[in-house]
Amino acid sequence: MSLIETKGLRKVFRQAVKDPGLAGAVKHLFTQRYKDKCAVEGIDLKIEEGESVAYVGPNGAGKSTTIKMLSGVLVPSGGEVVVDGLVPYKQRMDNAQRIGAVFGQRTQLWWDIPVRESLALLRDIYQVPESTFKKNMDAFTELLGLESFLHLSARKLSLGQRMRADLAAALLHDPKIVYLDEPTIGLDVAVKHRIRDFIKEMNRAKGTTMLLTTHDLGDIEDLCERLVIIDQGRIIYDGKLQDVKDAFARERTIHIQLSSPLPEAESLFRDLPDVSVNRPGEGAEAAFSLSIRFDRFRCTASDIVKRVMNRGEVVDFRIDEPSIEDIIRRVYEGQLDSVVLAEAGKGSA
Ligand SMILES: Nc1ncnc2c1ncn2[C@@H]1O[C@H](COP(=O)(O)OP(=O)(O)OP(=O)(O)O)[C@@H](O)[C@H]1O
């Protein structure tokens, strides 16, 4: 059995239907109307020990609801969920010992006491042995740079400091699984990198299984090999991040710097389909540089560079990798349907 396994997992919320304005609120007091909102609609998910999985989707797709069911906060309306052999909503205390959770929008630290004391309280709650506590505190203090604000209360922390303290709090008891809900939201680039490095290190050194929800595509590319895309409560893609890139980002661009101008470079590629040549920059600079776009399934980067090298001296070149950002945006916008995505997933799993 996988470390995390769900079968047909569902969650239906009962939502109040109110007419707008004060009149609507008053009317609702007397004649209550409700509708069912299916937030998660039959999720089948298997996550193995040590995996790092990105769980992404547009706003309202059902990501947080899934994580809340995995962590035992919400009781499912249907289906099955087993995490490390436990049913989270039935065995909440045992489950809590094995998981850690970071919610970017909220903190689990006590608002008015110094971070150092919050962490000591968590040590007692989770009954972390003193030697583990000390080892983890030393490692986290260094990796996350906690020293300068351990004496401050959570109330006084900046967002980046708070997030680093929250990560330490979530991992203090060496959980097998960590749920990260938007762990880098609103952070500057330097703190983001620090947090990503820390997550990678925990996954690498301790084999911690990570399930990450994020709208930050840098997080996904940096931290996860597996991508699960959810939309309207259903999984529409589950496979390797690289497969999605391969299927939808066929286009590559090689930027070449030349030692002398190369006129009519277009003629070098006449026999190759789907190759186009641009000259970035202005004036003299444009004469020395080429940007060549090609379909990597129809020809290779070395084909392109070789042809240029036969006619001129190449000083430098770089290849632009496809960005996952555009692909996921297209999925969100419904441009790529589930059939096409399923095709991309063949060969993963
Ligand atoms: N407690 C609740 N009561 C009623 N409806 C809810 C509740 N929690 C979530 N929902 C609804 O369920 C759907 C899924 O919400 P969820 O928070 O899981 O989405 P999400 O994918 O995490 O979105 P986001 O990226 O915006 O955080 C939404 O339509 C939301 O309005």
Automatic annotation (TrEMBL):
ABC transporter domain span: 17-257
InterPro entries: AAA+_ATPase, ABC_transporter-like_ATP-bd, ABC_transporter-like_CS, ABC_transporter_ATP-binding, DrrA1/2-like_C, P-loop_NTPase
Pfam family, one: DrrA1-3_C
Keywords: ATP-binding, Nucleotide-binding, Transport
A GO MF term: ATP binding
Descriptive protein name: ATP-binding cassette domain-containing protein
Organism placement in taxonomy: Bacteria, Bacillati, Bacillota, Bacilli, Bacillales
